[in-house]
Structure formats: C-alpha cells, structure tokens
## 1
Amino acid sequence: MTINETQDEIIEEFSDFDDWMDRYQLLIDLGSEQAPLPASDKTDQNLIEGCQSRVWLTASKAPDGTITFRAESDALIVRGIVALLIRVLSGHSADDIIGADLYFIERIGLREHLSPTRSNGLLAMLRQMRMYALAFRARQQA
C-alpha cells in the first residue's frame, strides 16, 4: 500500500466519528495496539527532543531498502499519534518517506485539535522520522 493510500484509509476511519472525544478514543486505541519497545530501546539517544511527553523512536532498514519505525510514548494520545505516523511511513523507502506530503494530519483535523506543545511534538516526531530516512539514504549512497 502506498503512503497516500494509507493516509486515505486513515481519513476514512476518522470520518466515521464527528465528535472529537470519539476521535481521541480512536487515537488512544491505536496507540494501545502498538507493541511496547524493549527497555534496551528506551534510551536518551532514542528520545525525541521537543515533545512534552517522552517519546522513544527507533528505525531499521530492511535488505529491500524499506524502513521500519517502532516507537513508544508515556502519553496515551501521543502514543496514538506516533502509531499513525508509523502506519503511514513504515515499510517505505527513504525517498518515499522524505518526499511524503502528510495531508492526513490536516484532513482528520488533528493539528487543530492538539495543544501547541503536542503539535510541536508531532512535528518533532515527523522530523526525526525524516532524519532517519535521510541518514539511511546517505549511508546507501556512500
């Protein structure tokens, strides 16, 4: 599935709910479905700067060039937000991740329903995922 197909699927899922309390519950549910990170991955090196809550993010590159992200947060809604980002970006190439236009964030109304600090955290998570993709691409070209 392409990045845009996954985004469209998320937009469809969120459109089933008119009330933002229901959408927050969907985020919490999505986050609780994420497998927890092993304690060995919960290091300062994997901690994302700029998030109000603690978010650890790791990335690995498969032999086929696709990148897989794993993450965990100590905040329920943030765990759901990072689960959405992982769902959209994991399993794609560095170039696809770097060039992705993540329109689902606006279309589901997420940005306008986040506090400024959570919005900054969302941008920090996305920036870190793109930095991993850039690093993997640079190693591949070296």
Note: Strands lie at 55-61, 66-73, 92-93.
## 2
Amino acid sequence: MWICDVGFGGSPLEPVELADGARTSGSGWEFRLERTVTPPGATAEAREWVLHERRGAGEEWSDLHTFTLDPRYAIDWEVGSHYVSTHPRSPFVRRPVVQRTGPDVRQALYGASWVTTARADGSRRVRELRPREVPEVLGDVFGVELDAADAEALAGVVERLPAEGGPAGVPAD
C-alpha cells in the first residue's frame, strides 16, 4: 500500500510506501514514515503514523503531520475544507499562500512574505515584498502569470492585509 499527499504543502512529491521506516528522497528532500506505539487499549489500526522531514544535512528529523488509518467519511473532509476556505481565522482566507518545492530550495509566499528554505542546511530567508512586487514574484518564482487586471487586484489585496506580528504570519519551522 502506498500513500500520497495532495495538499499539505512541503510533503513528498511522490507516493511513499505505507510501511514503518519507509523513506523517500524525491528531488533531494528526505522524508520518513514512522508508525507510533499503540496506546494501551487501542487497536492496532488506531496507531498513528507520523511523516517526518529531514532538516538540513544532519540527522535531525522534524514532524510534518500525523494520521491514522481510521475510516473517514465525506462529511469529515467537507467540514475541514469549508473551514479552511471560508472561516475568517483561516490563514488561507486572510492572505494568498503559494508553495513550490524544487531540488535545492522550497519557495513559499505568504501574503507579502517570500520564504526560501534551502535543502542543504535547512536555512530560511524571509523577504518582505511591497504589494506591487507580489505579482512579479508569482510569475518569476512560481510560474503563475497574471494579466494586468489580476496583478493589480492581487496587489490591492496584499496592500490591505493586516499586520500579523512577525514576518506577515510566516509559519514557524
């Protein structure tokens, strides 16, 4: 059995075997899947799986997310999807979010904050963009070309973003 992640962001770009200790290193980014210890009284199916990412060149692994093999129903996905796409406190409603993973760097844009993470050492560089720069970076770095009207509209949205403390709400590692 294999798993894939179609929307978490920063996850493996190819399927990973659903096996304890399975590893993948697509485009140089390394990931490991681990099955956790079963809590007392829980069934084997209730165990959590943890997806880890290697940070930098050392042996440091960081947890990305956990999941179980418990059955899910359409309503489980519908409620979560509705929240992240409509709730005013959702980070995906408050600002544009774009990510792109390449062989050596992961690029992310959170509103006007452009974050570059280096694969080799895990270092991060954050650059605050002026609102009018955001459409240009979308095209040059992420391959998302906007026509003049959409670029102007996006710059206007970014200009009206509230200050969120720290670099425009950039997620911490």
Note: Helices lie at 74-86, 91-94, 134-142, 148-159.
